[in-house]
Design goal:
The complex is a heterodimer of chains A (202) and B (196). Helices cover 50% and strands 18% of the residues of chain A. Chain A is α+β, with helices and mostly antiparallel strands and 202 residues long. In chain A, a hairpin with a 7-residue loop joins strand 3 and strand 4 (177-186). In chain A, helix 4 packs across helix 5 (143-155). The chains are: A alpha+beta (202), B alpha+beta (196). Chains A and B meet through helix 1, helix 2, helix 3, helix 5 and strand 3 of A and helix 1, helix 2 and strand 1 of B.
C-alpha cells in the first residue's frame, strides 16, 4: 500500500485502526495478562473460593460421620455415668468413703480404729484428671479378716485402688496385727457431653 | 515519447481492488473492537460466575458450619470420654494382681517355720524423674538358716505374687539366737514393667 497514495481521510482511518489495535492489545494484556489490581483481586477471591470449597468438603465429610460419632459419644457417656457411682465425687467425699469402708469392715468382722483423709502438698498443682482422693484406715485384726476386708473393698468397687497395706504383728496378741491401709479413688470423673444432640439428617 | 497527464485530484481517485481501503480499514477496526468486546464480556462473565459461586459456597458454609462444628465437638467429647474410660480401666488394678489375692498367696507360701513381724505391700511412688514400683516386703523370724531362702523360692514360684511384685530377693538375714534367724525379703517391680 502506498501511503502517499491514500487520501487524508484514509490515512486517518488507517491510523485509527492501528490505534484501536494498540488499545486492544493493551486492554487484553491488562485484563488477561494479570497486570491489573482487579485481576489480583480475582486471583485472591478464586483462592478464597477454593479454600471455602475445601472447608465445605471437610464439613460434609464430618457431617457424614454424625451418626457414628453420636453413637460413640452416647456409649461413652453411658459407661462413664455407670462408673461415676463408684467415685467419691459428691460434696461430702469423706462420708461416702466412710460408709463404703465401714459397711465392708462390719461384714468382714473388722472394727475400724480410724479413717483419715490424706492430702499431699503438691496435689493442688496437679492436673485435676490426675488428682486422687486418698483415705487411710487403721485397725487391729487377724490376717484372714484383713484379706476378707480387702476382698470386699476391691470386688465392690472397680475404681478403688489399694495403694499400700502395712501389717505389723502385735507382740502381745499373736493372731492380731496392727494394720494400716491406704485407699485411693480418682478425685474427679469428667464426663464430656459434647454440644448436645445433632440431627443425623443434617 | 508519450506523456501521462494525471488530471484527477487525490480525493477523486478510486481504489482499483475488489475491496476498497475504506472497507478494509473499517472491517479491521470492527473486528478489533468486536474481539475486544467479546473478550471483555467473557472476562466479566467469568467474574460474575465466580462471584455467584462464591456467594453460593458462602451460603452453604453458613448453613453447614454450625452443624459440622457441633459434630466435631461431639467427636472431641467422645474421644475425651474414651481416654477417661481407658484411664479408669487401668486405674484401680493396673497391671498387677489384686491386693487381697496377693496377701492370700503370700500367707499360703510362707513356711510354718517362719513368723512374719511386718508386711508391706503396695505402690512405692518415685519422684518426678524416678519410676514408681509395686513393692512387697516381708520381714520376720525363721527357725533355720535356709528357711527364708525356701520362702523366697516358694514366693517366686507363685504366679499371683509374681504378678504383683516380680521376683523376691533376700535382702537381709541375721542370726538372732541359736537357730532363730531374722530376715527380710523384698520383691519390687517397676509399674508398667513386666514381671521378671
Amino acid at each position: 500500500m502506498n501511503w502517499s497514495a491514500l487520501t487524508k481521510k484514509q490515512q486517518y482511518m488507517a491510523i485509527g485502526t492501528v490505534l484501536i489495535a494498540v488499545v486492544q492489545i493493551f486492554v487484553l494484556f491488562y485484563f488477561l495478562g494479570g497486570g491489573s489490581s482487579s485481576d489480583k483481586d480475582a486471583e485472591s477471591s478464586k483462592l478464597e473460593l477454593e479454600q471455602l470449597q475445601n472447608k465445605l468438603h471437610d464439613a460434609q465429610l464430618v457431617i457424614g460421620k454424625t451418626k457414628k460419632i453420636n453413637t460413640t459419644l452416647d456409649e461413652t457417656i453411658a459407661k462413664l455415668e455407670e462408673l461415676s457411682v463408684y467415685t467419691p465425687t459428691v460434696s461430702d467425699r469423706y462420708a461416702w468413703a466412710y460408709e463404703y469402708i465401714s459397711l465392708r469392715a462390719a461384714k468382714a468382722g473388722v472394727e475400724l480404729d480410724s479413717l483419715e483423709e490424706i492430702f499431699y502438698a503438691g496435689d493442688v498443682e496437679k492436673d485435676p484428671v490426675e488428682q486422687v482422693y486418698e483415705i487411710s484406715l487403721s485397725t487391729q485384726c487377724g490376717y484372714n479378716q484383713l484379706v476378707e476386708l480387702l476382698w470386699r473393698i476391691e470386688s465392690g468397687n472397680p475404681l478403688v485402688r489399694i495403694k499400700t497395706v502395712d501389717i505389723t504383728t502385735l507382740s502381745d496378741i499373736s493372731d492380731q496385727h496392727r494394720v494400716r491401709v491406704a485407699l485411693q479413688w480418682p478425685a474427679t470423673l469428667r464426663i464430656e457431653r459434647g454440644s448436645g444432640a445433632v440431627a443425623e439428617n443434617e | 515519447m508519450s506523456l501521462r497527464v494525471d488530471l484527477l485530484k487525490k480525493t477523486e481517485r478510486r481504489y482499483q481492488g475488489i475491496v476498497s481501503t475504506k472497507v478494509m480499514v473499517m472491517g479491521s477496526a470492527s473486528v478489533l473492537i468486536g474481539t475486544t468486546i467479546l473478550v471483555l464480556s467473557l472476562v466479566l462473565l467469568s467474574k460474575a460466575t465466580q462471584g455467584a459461586n462464591f456467594k453460593r459456597a458462602r451460603r452453604e458454609w453458613e448453613r453447614l458450619n454450625p452443624v459440622a462444628t457441633a459434630v466435631r465437638q461431639n467427636g472431641l467429647a467422645a474421644e475425651e470420654n474414651r481416654k477417661t474410660l481407658e484411664r479408669m480401666e487401668g486405674w484401680a488394678q493396673g497391671d498387677r494382681s489384686s491386693m487381697y489375692a496377693t496377701l492370700r498367696e503370700v500367707q499360703r507360701e510362707i513356711p510354718a517355720l517362719i513368723q512374719l513381724n511386718n508386711l508391706r505391700a503396695g505402690i512405692l511412688e518415685g519422684g518426678a524423674d524416678e519410676p514408681s514400683y509395686y513393692l512387697l516386703r516381708v520381714s520376720g523370724r525363721a527357725l533355720g538358716e535356709l528357711v527364708a531362702v525356701e520362702a523366697k523360692r516358694k514366693l517366686n514360684s507363685n504366679e499371683k505374687v509374681q504378678g504383683f511384685c516380680g521376683d523376691f530377693r533376700l535382702i537381709s538375714s541375721e542370726r538372732e539366737a541359736g537357730d532363730v534367724w531374722t530376715f527380710a525379703l523384698e520383691g519390687r517391680r517397676e509399674i508398667g514393667g513386666t514381671p521378671e
